[in-house]
Amino acid sequence: MRVLIVPELYRPRDASANATLNDAVTWVREWLRQDPTVHVYWLLPHRGTANYEREDVLADRDRVTLLEADSFMQGTDSEYVFTESGYTEEQLRVIRERIYEELGYVDVVVDQLRQGREDLLKWLLLLSGHRADEPKPFDVVVNVHDLMLPFKYATDGYRDDYHRKLEVAHAVLADGCWFKAGLDASELPVFGREFLSETVIEDALDDAVMTESPIDFSRFEERYAKEPRWLHIAGSGWKKKHPELLFEIAEDLYREYGIETIFTSMDDIPESYTRYPWVEAYPRASWEEYARMLRKGDIAICATEYDTLARTWFEQAASGQVLVVRDEPWVEDCVPDDSPLVVPVEELGSRARWVVENWDDAVAANQRLIDHVREVRSPERAGRKTLDDMTRRVEEKVDEYTEVHRKGDSRRSAVGRAIDRTDPDSIALDELNEAGATVVRDGEPLLDHEWCSITDLVFALRVRGYYDTGSAGTPVFRRVPDPDSPGRMSVRSP
Predict the structure, then answer these.
(1) For residues 109 and 124, is the Cβ–Cβ distance under 8 A?
(2) Model pLDDT, residue 183
């Protein structure tokens, strides 16, 4: 199975610290571990401009191919407005060059951009040689990271209801939806039914997958201090996270208990927060600085109004920082129902004081919270759910193409004869293409003919019991040893 992933990079100059990319990297790591036949294509900005390395996206291994191309409006003063927008000519060109010109193909597209999907779909259909009367050879799955619901992005003057409606329509009309947060899945129909058919929405949600934004907790050491000394305020300074309230609580904790404050932020930190001697600040913090402060901090506070299963606060909690959480619907997917660390916004300050005064009880409550989060946001669980969804989709395509091949025609007969001329156990697509020259009248390779496409080769092999091994470059297929085994019509190896 071959998967193309296009994540939104809302901070393209620091891709390795990007939460939406980290989710996808976790999936990819699990897919590679759980299924030895998966091959992943990343479509990302150039490393030189987006500040990441090949190993950050697992592209330092054989079954991951990195496609680098400038995204729309990249490098301009307004790029932050367009990091979720459509595809550039360079991006489409690199898909052709690095996938299809190497006789590769795509089974599933996991697309997180809010716009431009119709162009990508058209391009992939063209490159795959799709015919109007045949099944689509791939599915497009929309990865819903942070749905533009009416109560979100209220201060963004460059967005309005047109963009909100368009994003919802694009999501429910795609082949599939993956939701990072239950809040988005539950609120989509509330907003969407104002302008879309109930049936369209229900059909989309019936097959939707909840990915729950997995976190690799093995990276963090849950170690608690004997007594609290540091409040750690981390992440961006966006208004929805109420940094002013957090600083008020920080001032109170210092005044009452001598608790000092650490700031680590992906942004600049206002001087009004950093001018105090009891504040240690790391603006535009590197991962190394952030990780060091995870080990140093003792208390964390989440005051955000809404989020899509955020990572930072739970990374803090998993590092031994007792986490006090504002009670909002989005956190219900993450925390135990009766946790004393979850309180209304007006009680965040008093609960932070309770944590300091009842440190042992607070640590025990945080340990229980993390035990819960480890389960619901397990990488293995998220990997299995998303992999199962993709595998099902590809196996359904194989069934559809089996029916097409049963009807038979001269071009499919030619592909079948070419398969018979190759190694019976292992066939590379370029070898199959060349073998076709021995079975057609003009002596030309199969793909030199208008009537033959890469899709014809791929599904002819799958229908005959071959599976893609997931190799780099030109795909190599192997025959499933037992034609009666469960792997007979599967994209996985037996």
Answers:
(1) yes
(2) 81
- How does pLDDT run across 129-155, given as a tens digit for each residue? 999 889 999 999 999 988 777 776 666
Query: pTM of whole model > 0.85?
Result: no
- Any bridge partners for residue 299, and if so which? 231, 322
Q: How far from chain centre, in Å, is Cα 344? A: 31
Q: Is 331 helix (H, G, I), strand (E, B) or coil?
A: helix
In sequence order, the 6+-apart residues with CB closer than 8 A to the CB of 29 are 58, 216, 379, 383
Which residues in the chain come in under a pLDDT of 70? 9-20, 79-84, 152-155, 157-159, 408, 410, 482-494
**Rounded Cα gap, residues 187 and 202, in angstroms:** 13
C-alpha 402: how far from chain center: 31
Using CA atoms, how far apart are residues 393 and 407, in angstroms rounded to an integer? 22
CA dist., res. 365 & res. 369, Å (int): 6
Query: Who's near 470: CB < 8 A, 6+ residues apart?
Result: 1, 2, 36, 37, 38, 39, 63
What distance in Å separates the CA atoms of residue 153 and residue 238, rounded to the nearest whole number? 11
Q: Say whether 6 sits in a helix, a strand or coil.
A: strand
Q: Is 167 exposed, middle or buried (0-12, 13-18, 19+ CB in 10 A)?
A: buried
- The answer to whether 446 and 412 are in contact (CB under 8 A) is no
Instruction: Say how many CA atoms lie within 13 Å of 402 toward its Cβ.
Output: 14
